[in-house]
Predict the structure.
Amino acid sequence: MLNRAKLMQALEGVTNQLFIDTTQAHTLARELWHKISTDATFIYKVKASHAPWPLPTWQGNLSDAIAVAPSISNYHVLSVDGSQIYPDRHQGLGCFLINIGSVMLHYGCPNKAVQFDSVPQVFTGHEKELYEIMPHDLVNCRRQEMELDAGFALSVQLNKLCTDEVPRVLLFDGSLIFWHLEAKDDTLRTLFLHKYLATLHGLYEEQMPTAGYVSLPRSRELVNLLRLALCNFDAAHADKTDVLDGIVDATVASFFLRPFERTIVFQNHAHINQYYPEPLKPYFFYLHVGNEIGRVEVPAWIAHDQQLVNVIAQVIIDQCTKGRGYPVVLAEAHEQAVVKGPDRDFFYHLLHKIGIDNKQRIALSQKVIKKRGIGI
């Protein structure tokens, strides 16, 4: 049981760390951004630098704010999301569940029916080549693989169903940069990265405009440009840039973006991107959707087509307007995918029932048994 009185005391003890005055950092960041965005040679200095932080590259003016028409009446939008029940050794079985939710919405297309679906899949956890992988890592990687596969299948279905010229967009919740594999061992990366990229390439061949949307992004690639300027391109003085620790890219973008405007497109240069083929290299831009500034990530083949970039921005703004700040299609995909506490209990209830029907006894840990009935 949570002791609420003690919780209040604990929170009061860390208030100064939770709520930090960043006014000085904001002022400094604004001044630095004005300085680098008016320096025509800055991009060349960035390319020649050896900064300890990941730096983006770009074409055009850093502070360009590109207006996006906020209304688009006819379009198709798809999304998928995943949720899971991780393996629980206390339940006596190593299996796990991944539930994939999918949504297909049509606007201005009265003859097309919306589609909501969720598909659960159970894994036994007995794959020999996966024994050395941590269970949570395995589940997370499998879920990402299944989300991409479901997105591809939904795209193929839409392209067969709709042969019109109405814009269509596939949206994923989160990044298209597979950060969860960057810091993992080669075994995990070898097993999953090729599958991820193969599916993204399939979407490229289907010519399905694809984007990842990140709400309340915490990325700091634009902030890293400010760090570079602050230390005067000398990595030996990187410690002097700690004053910018409380600043994120969305803060920087707020210096020059108004509602329904986007930044120019930047190329991401994370280490994991060396494995991406050229058409799939990750790019990103920031988009003011009215309530917040979100991050939108797209593969290179889309980033190089300004018309596709603008269509994706239009669709996201319209979805955020309809969803009161967050894309409707992403919220609905999450609702289809989410696995709640009672669902988890039902999953394990079914497992134990199947065990009884097959005259197999599942050995529960004493911890689970104790939770079911605490004696006095």
